[in-house]
C-alpha cells in the first residue's frame, strides 16, 4: 500500500468531516432549520473515503440520495454544501438542488441522485466519453443493495462490460433497501455475484475498513486505466441512522444498531485505534483534527444562514442547457 502516514491521517479527517457534517445536518433537520427529506451517511464513511482517496480530481463519480459523504470525500466544500441544503444562492446548485442533487463538474461530481439506480448509466456515459477522448479518467458509481435490483443497473453493467469501459461499480451494501433487509429482497447472498453474469471481475471488502476499501479501489482503478474494463466492488457496511431523518426504524432492533456502533465496527473508531496503535498519529493530533472539523462545520452553518436566497428572477435560469 503506497499511503504515507500523512495521507492516512487525512483519510481519518475525511471520515470525521463526513460524520460531523451529517450529525449537524440531523440536528438542523430535527430543529426545523432544514426541510425536506434528508438521508444520512453515518456509519458508511469508510466507503466514500477509501474509494475517493484512490481517484484523481478529473475522475468522475455518480452518487445517490445518500450522497453527502461521497461529495465530501471527492473534495466538496462543506460551506457550499450546507448552503445548498439551506436552499441558498451560494450553494453548489444555487439552492435548486437540495440534499439529493448536489453536483460539481469541476470536481468530477456528476451529481447525487434522488432516483434509485440512476447513477450507473450516467457513470457508463462518462466512461464512454473518457474512452472516446482517449484520456485515462475513470468513472465510479456508488449504489446500494436495493438499487442493484433496478434494470438501469443491469443495463449499465452490460454496456460497460461489452465496451470495456473504465467504470467501477461500488456497491454500498448497508443491509437495507429503505426498510427491507437484503435477505428479504434478494435471492443472492452477495450482490456482487451478479457481476459474474456480465463477466465483470468483482471483489468483496469490509466496507468499514477504509484501507481495505482503498486497496480494492486502487486495483480497480489501475485495471480501468489500463483499458481492462469495469470492476465491481462490494463494500459490506451498515447504515447507523434510519433511511431518512425521522424514520421510526421499526424494522430493526436497537441492539443490532448498537452493535455496529461499537469500537470494533464503527469505521472511524476502528481507524482511530489503528492510527494510535501503529504510532501513525498521537491522540493530541487526532483531537486537534476533531476540533478543527467541528469549527469548520459550525462556520459552514453560519455561512449558509447568512447567505441570500435565490431571487425569483432566477427561477428558470440553468433549467435548460
Automatic annotation (TrEMBL):
<feature type="domain" description="Dehydrogenase E1 component">
    <location>
        <begin position="14"/>
        <end position="312"/>
    </location>
</feature>
<protein>
    <recommendedName>
        <fullName>Pyruvate dehydrogenase E1 component subunit alpha</fullName>
    </recommendedName>
</protein>
<dbReference type="InterPro" id="IPR029061">
    <property type="entry name" value="THDP-binding"/>
</dbReference>
<keyword id="KW-0786">Thiamine pyrophosphate</keyword>
<keyword id="KW-0670">Pyruvate</keyword>
<keyword id="KW-0560">Oxidoreductase</keyword>
<dbReference type="GO" id="GO:0004739">
    <property type="term" value="F:pyruvate dehydrogenase (acetyl-transferring) activity"/>
</dbReference>
<dbReference type="InterPro" id="IPR001017">
    <property type="entry name" value="DH_E1"/>
</dbReference>
<dbReference type="InterPro" id="IPR050642">
    <property type="entry name" value="PDH_E1_Alpha_Subunit"/>
</dbReference>
<dbReference type="Pfam" id="PF00676">
    <property type="entry name" value="E1_dh"/>
</dbReference>
<comment type="subunit">
    <text>Heterodimer of an alpha and a beta chain.</text>
</comment>
<dbReference type="GO" id="GO:0006086">
    <property type="term" value="P:pyruvate decarboxylation to acetyl-CoA"/>
</dbReference>
